[in-house]
Amino acid sequence: MMGPHLNVQNQTNLLRCELEIVTLFETYLRDGNLCVETLGRGYDWFDIGIHTSLLEASNFLRTLTEHQDLQIGSSDEIAYQNE
Prior knowledge:
Layout: H1 21-31, H2 51-67, H3 75-81
């Protein structure tokens, strides 16, 4: 999705001096370069721009790993599934 020719210099920055992801999406859409896919079951999106949101995402991942015995981003599990 992210291309090498994205010009972010003219984009509006937020008070915390960050660029909103929505602004990037709008730029790609305007330029005709936006590709999207519907995420199926088992995917989730967390906006972790503030510390409470980061904690919420962290707690969600901890719950998955502890209660459902799932590993998130584990190279061992990926290798095992691809055998």
